[in-house]
Amino acid sequence: MSGALQPGTILWLRRHSVFFAVVAVALLGLVLSFAGSPAWIWLFCAAMPLVAIGVFDMVQQQHSLLRNYPLIGTMRWLFEDLRPYLRQYIVEGDQEGRPYPRSDRSLIYARAKAEEDRQPFGTELNAYSSEYEWMTHSLAPLPAAEEPFRVTVGGPQCTRPYSSAVLNVSAMSFGSLGRNAIEALNLGAKRGGFYHDTGEGGLSPYHRIHGGDIVWELGSGYFGCRNRDGSFSPERFAEKAADDQVKMVEIKLSQGAKPGHGGVLPAAKVTPEIAEIRGIALGEDCISPSRHPAFSTPVEMMEFVAQLRELSGGKPVGIKLCVGHPSETFAIVKAMLKTGIRPDFVVVDGSEGGTGAAPRELADHVGMPLREGLVLMRNALVGAGLRGEVRLAASGKVTSGFSMAANMAIGADWCNAARAFMFSLGCVQSLRCHTGLCPTGVTTNDEHLQRGLVVADKALRVASFQKHTVAALADLVAAAGLAHPSDLLPHHVWHRLSPIEVRPLDRLYTFLAPFALVEAPDDTPYAAEWRAADADSFVPRIDVGPRRAA
Prior knowledge:
This protein is an alpha/beta fold and 550 residues long. The protein has a domain of 358 residues: Aldolase class I (TIM Barrel), CATH 3.20.20. Helix content is 39%, strand content 11%. It is built from 20 helices and 15 strands. The strands form 4 sheets. It has an 8-stranded parallel sheet. A 3-stranded antiparallel sheet has the order 1-14-15. Strands 2-3 form a two-stranded antiparallel ribbon.
């Protein structure tokens, strides 16, 4: 029907329904005061402050929810402001009455807004919980570093190395996130001096508007550099990789949220613009292949790394994966040894990483958690004598200086975060990412909802969160008597196993010595997996363990 309202307009009217109702009440009171009894003016006077609040909500730029949900959003903020005072009347804590720790989300919000993030009365954590961890400190601490930590990425085969921050924006694609969110992340990265990973959705105009450093993630769909049949296009890749804003290239093998499964962008979020940028069909789910068509063996993958490095003009090229079969991780390392080709970096994505859409079973039960995966990849590189040439990064629920320090203590050179930066954009975890109806305008392409996310304001929060979190890391490093996060070692972090047993991480995990896998693999816990690994195949050469009886 030609006169029917568009779905977006209907949603806009619903979000503003309370505000319009209050305006109607105010007008009704004004009309009745003139046409009927003057006493009705009280209705007008009572409603007008609410009208004023609603108008203010719509024009202010700091809060996405208020812009998108005038008056309704104000009620939410009111209860949030009252929460500390009502806390004594609300049942909190576990069965023994101990309070739950303050959420990581609250800490991220405080740092993003440059608000006070200290807390009174000491820790709220249960020091006897089996999940409790802490860092050892020195009785001779050093002054905290004043300059942000940097890490040089680029091995001997790279001619254009990159100086990376130690905390960067992890992979989140345009399409999964709206254009305003992408712009805010990139502008924040520009202001804060850190990089912004594109996600496998490829380079979009919104990644380039503000000039922030870019790591171009290349997924199995090769979006932005694909031929019509979905295969990799060297010519299109070389053209875009030449952009000075692109600092590094990352080949995504798998992601922690859905390892072994291609990326998913639901049809509801595939707009004509996204379809054009990605080179895909409009109105259909965009599902990437579960594996790369450009290579089928570890050796071929190393050759692909070398090809991308050459096509990009010598920029650092690395791989990102959620660790799966240990034998495949060792096969990748053996391919490095066989070919002499080294990726410049490896990003380990933990299975606890988030996503906007994933099958529940894959999200919950497939892939190694970050710590185990990071230790295995560290041991593979160190044990093969390659750690000095290949940088290592960690991604997966990185939310604080301590989570960064713990990752670095077991081998990471830097960390990437996605969820934390979404919180700094204003995400309230409404869990509607896959519907295109995100109320804060972060994970939606709806024009009306995106209006709530003001790029300039949220970019400041993105930069502020990164700055304060890295400063917290500097405090931890200094308290341990160290000068740089690279000095952190596994024995600096302790883990409680039970109420009466604790261990440092170097006595909880195995950490191989350099060249242990090539010189004496049988003396390591990975002997069977190392023997099974084949540089020419991802399929193990031998049986690495018992199987189900026939």
